[in-house]
Automatic annotation (TrEMBL):
Binding site for ATP: 125
GO molecular function: ATP binding; protein serine/threonine kinase activity; protein serine/threonine/tyrosine kinase activity; protein tyrosine kinase activity
Stated name of the protein: dual-specificity kinase
EC number: 2.7.12.1
PANTHER family per UniProt: DUAL SPECIFICITY PROTEIN KINASE CLK1 (PTHR45646:SF4), SERINE/THREONINE-PROTEIN KINASE DOA-RELATED (PTHR45646)
Similarity comment text for this entry: Belongs to the protein kinase superfamily. CMGC Ser/Thr protein kinase family. Lammer subfamily.
Signal sequence bounds: none
Short name of one Pfam family: Pkinase
Provenance organism: Alosa alosa (allis shad)
Biological process according to GO: regulation of RNA splicing
Organism domain of life: Eukaryota
Length: 419
C-alpha cells in the first residue's frame, strides 16, 4: 500500500520504465502522477507472488473458504470496487478528492478529514466488497491496531493507521499521507543509485522498524522498495552540463515501512510462498520453512538495489533464481540442498543447472560475483557491502540478525549522533 502526499518538486521529468519492470496494477503504493490514471504502473515482478500468495492468505484467514461473494451494495462495479466520485463523503467525515492507486484488492484515495480543524489530507484504502478480501483487510487492521498500541509515540518508522470502518461491505483503512516510494524515486532519477550516505540513513530507519516487528513476533514478508515510502519526497535535481547528466538529490531521506497485509505472527500459519520474487529468500524457494530471517534477506536485496539502482535477481523462475544466487554469492551449501523438498532443483547434492543453456548464458550475463558490484573501495562502500553480504547469507542460522545489523560499523556515525 502507499500513502503519498502532494510533492512540490524543483524539477522532474517523465522517464521510461525500467526494462525489467513491465506495467501492472499495483495497489500497495501509488503516486500523484499515476493517480490520474487510477493505478500505478510497475513491473510484473510482483505478479506471480501476489496472485498466489494473496489466495493463500485468503484460504487461511479465519479458516474461511476463498470465494467471490459480496455483501449487498448498490454502489459497486462488476469487480467489487466501490463506485465513488470526487466530493463524495464517507461517514460524514472523509471527503474524497482523488484516486491515488488501484489494484487487485481495491483502490486507494486521497481524502480530506473534516473532523480536524486544519482539514488534514489522508490516504484511504477502500477494499473490494468481496468476502476473501474483507478477511485479509480485517487481518491487516488487527495488526495495525497492535502496532499502534506497541508504538504509541511513533518511535519506529512504520506507517500509522489513523482510522478504519466498514462502508457497506467495503473495509476502509485510513493512513497518514506520505511521499513517493523509494522505487518511484529511483524511477524518477532514471534508475541512478542513491548516494551511500542516503542509503545509510534510510537503511538504519528501515532496520529499526523491521526489528520492532520482529521483537513483537511479527514478520513483514513483503519488504521491497515499493513498500518503503519517503515521509517527504521533495527533491532537487542537479544538472552537470559538462557531462549532460542530471542527479536527483533528496532533501530529507526519512522513510516509513508500509503494507502489512501479508504480515504474519510467529504463531500463525506460514504459507509456503512469501515475499515478492526478487526479494524472496532461498529457504522460501527451497521450501525449508521460513521465519523472521526472510525479512533480513529481503532487506539485503533492497540495499543492493538502492546501491546499484536496479535489482540483482531479475527473474521469474525458481531454478534460474537459485542459479543467480550462486553466480552472485557462491554455491548453495550442500546441507540446505539435502534438506529441500524440491528435489527437482537438486542433482547429486548440487543445484541442477545447465550453465551452457540459454538461461545459463542469461544468468552469466545478468549477474556477477558480489564484490564486483562495488563501484568504490572506500571504507564506507566496503562496510555497506559487508553488511549486505551478511544479510544475504544462505543459512538462516548464520544470517545476521537486525540487532546485530544495527551495531554494524556502517552505522557507527548514526549511533554516535543519536547519543
Amino acid at each position: 500500500m502507499g500513502y503519498e502526499k502532494k510533492n512540490y518538486h524543483i524539477a522532474s521529468k517523465d522517464l521510461e520504465h525500467h526494462s525489467g519492470r513491465q506495467n501492472e496494477q499495483d495497489w500497495h503504493h501509488f503516486t500523484r502522477s499515476s493517480g490520474h490514471h487510477g493505478y500505478n504502473q510497475h513491473s510484473n515482478r510482483r505478479y506471480h507472488h501476489e496472485q498466489y500468495h494473496n489466495i493463500e492468505n485468503c484460504k487461511h484467514s479465519d479458516s474461511r473458504t476463498y470465494q467471490r461473494t459480496r455483501a449487498t451494495s448498490i454502489g459497486d462495479d462488476d469487480e467489487g470496487h466501490l463506485i465513488y466520485h470526487n466530493g463524495d463523503m464517507l461517514t460524514s467525515r472523509y471527503e474524497i478528492v482523488g484516486t491515488l492507486g488501484e489494484g487487485a484488492f481495491g483502490k486507494v484515495v486521497e481524502c480530506i478529514d473534516h473532523s480536524i480543524n486544519d482539514c488534514v489530507h489522508v490516504a484511504m484504502k477502500i477494499v473490494k466488497n468481496i468476502d476473501s478480501y474483507r478477511d485479509v483487510a480485517m487481518s491487516e487492521v488487527a495488526i495495525l491496531k497492535k502496532m499502534n498500541t506497541l508504538d504509541s509515540d511513533s518511535h519506529y518508522a512504520c506507517v500509522r493507521m489513523l482510522d478504519w470502518f466498514n462502508h457497506h461491505g467495503h473495509i476502509c483503512i485510513v493512513f497518514e499521507l506520505l511521499g513517493l516510494s523509494t522505487y518511484e524515486l529511483l524511477q524518477k532519477n532514471n534508475f541512478q543509485p542513491f548516494p551511500v550516505e542516503n542509503i545509510r540513513h534510510m537503511a538504519y530507519q528501515i532496520i529499526r522498524a523491521v526489528r520492532f516487528l520482529h521483537k513483537n513476533k511479527l514478520t513483514h514478508t513483503d519488504l521491497k522498495p515499493e513498500n518503503i515510502l519517503f515521509v517527504d519526497s521533495d527533491y532537487a535535481v542537479l544538472y552537470y552540463s559538462k557531462d549532460k547528466w542530471s542527479e536527483l538529490t533528496l532533501n530529507i531521506p526519512e522513510v516509513k515501512v508500509v503494507d502489512f497485509g501479508n504480515a504474519t505472527f510467529d504463531h500463525q500459519y506460514h504459507s509456503s510462498v512469501v515475499s515478492t520474487r526478487h526479494y524472496r529468500a532461498p529457504e522460501v524457494i527451497l521450501e525449508l520453512g521460513w521465519n523472521q530471517a526472510c525479512d533480513v534477506w529481503s532487506l539485503g536485496c533492497i540495499l543492493i538495489e538502492y546501491y546499484l539502482g536496479s535489482t540483482v535477481f531479475q527473474t521469474h523462475s525458481n531454478r534460474e533464481h537459485l542459479a543467480m544466487m550462486e553466480r552472485v554469492l557462491g554455491p548453495i551449501p550442500t546441507h540446505l540442498l539435502q534438506k529441500t523438498r524440491r528435489r527437482c532443483y537438486v542433482h547429486r547434492n548440487r543445484l541442477d543447472w545447465d550453465a551452457r543453456s540459454s538461461s545459463g548464458r542469461y544468468v552469466r550475463k545478468q549477474c556477477k560475483p558480489f564484490k564486483e558490484y562495488m563501484t568504490s573501495r572506500s571504507p564506507e562502500h566496503r562496510q555497506l557491502f559487508d553488511l549486505i553480504q551478511r544479510m544475504l547469507e544462505y543459512d538462516v542460522t548464520q544470517r545476521i540478525t537486525l540487532n546485530e545489523a544495527l551495531s554494524h560499523p556502517f552505522f557507527k556515525n548514526i549511533r554516535k549522533s543519536r547519543k
